[in-house]
Amino acid sequence: MPLKVAAFYQFAALPDFHALREPLRALCTGLGLKGSVLLAHEGINGTIAGTTEGIDGFVAELQRGPLFGGRLENLELKFSEAAQMPFQRLKVRLKKEIVTLGDATVDPTGRVGTYVEAVDWNALIASPDTLLLDTRNAFEVAMGTFEGAVDPRIASFGQFKEFAARELDPARHRKIAMFCTGGIRCEKASAYLLAHGFTEVYHLKGGILRYLEETPERDSRWRGECFVFDERVALGHGLREHGCTESSAHE
User: Of 225, 230, 222, which is closest to residue 247 (Cα–Cα)?
Assistant: First the structure.
C-alpha cells in the first residue's frame, strides 16, 4: 500500500512553541510518522509521511485537538503519495522562523498578498502587465518553473530581500504574481513587498503542488518538474513521483 505524505503549514501565534515540541514528537512517534516539523513563535511548517490512518490522526490533532487549542484551524495542507517511506527519521525542530527570511518586521498573520486559486492562475500570468516571479532557490528553478517566470537567482530564501531591493520597483512593477512549492514562502515574500510599497501582489494558493494536482496537463503552463524536500526529489502533474534520490533540504 502506498504511504500518505502531508505537507502543511500555518502562520499562527505560538508563544508556547518550546513546550509544544515534545508532545508533538510523542504524537508523531505514536502514530508511526517520519519527516520534519518546524515550530516557531510564528507558526508551524512540515512534511511527514505514514499510513493513511496515521496522517489523518495527526492532522485531526493539529486542527481540532487540545495540543494547539484551535490555533491551527486554517492549516494549509497538501497530500500526496509515496511508494516507499520518503524520510529516514522524525525531526521536530525549534526555529526562529518557520521559513527564514531574516526580517523580524514581516508578519504574514497581519497582511499578505491576494490568494489566487489554481484554476485562475493561467489567466493572471497571461496578462502582459503581470510580472511573474518565482520565489524559490536556483536549484529548484532549474528543475522546472512557469513559462515566462523571473528567476531571482538566489541560493536561499533569505536572499529574497536583496533581490527585491535590487531588481523590483513599486513604480515599475505594479502587478506582481509570485509562486513557490507549497505557498509558505509566498506568504512571507508578499507580506514583505506589501510592507515596502508594492500595492498589487498576488500569490498561487497552495503553491505549485496544488497547481500540478488540479490543472490538467494539457492546460498547464508549468514546464519541467517540481522539486520537493524529501527522497522523492521531484513531482509532476497529478503529483506523480519523478525521482528517488535523497534530499535533506526543507522549504
Answer: 230
Residue 2 DSSP one-character state = P
SS (H, E, C) 3-47: EEEEEEEEECCCCCHHHHHHHHHHHHHHCCCEEEEEEECCEEEEE
**pLDDT tens-digit profile of 6-19?**
999 999 999 999 99
Q: b or e along 125-150 (b: 16 or more beta carbons within 10 Å of the residue's beta carbon)?
A: beeeebbbbbbbbeebbebbbbeebb
| C-beta neighbour count of 233 within 10 angstroms | 19
SS3 content of the chain, % helix, strand, coil (to 5): 30, 25, 45
Q: What gap in Å lies between CA 219 and CA 222, rounded to an integer?
A: 9
β pairing state of 222-224 and 201-204: unpaired
Residue corresponding to grid cell 489554481: 118
pLDDT digits (tens, 9 = 90+) for 27-42: 999 999 999 999 999 9
Which helix (H) or strand (E) is 204 found in, with range? strand 201-204
Active site residues: 180
State the pTM of this model.
0.84
Q: Output the CA torsion 190→191→195→200 (10° steps).
A: 40
Which of 185, 183, 190, 177 has its CA nearest to residue 221? Answer: 177
Helix or strand or coil: residue 237?
helix
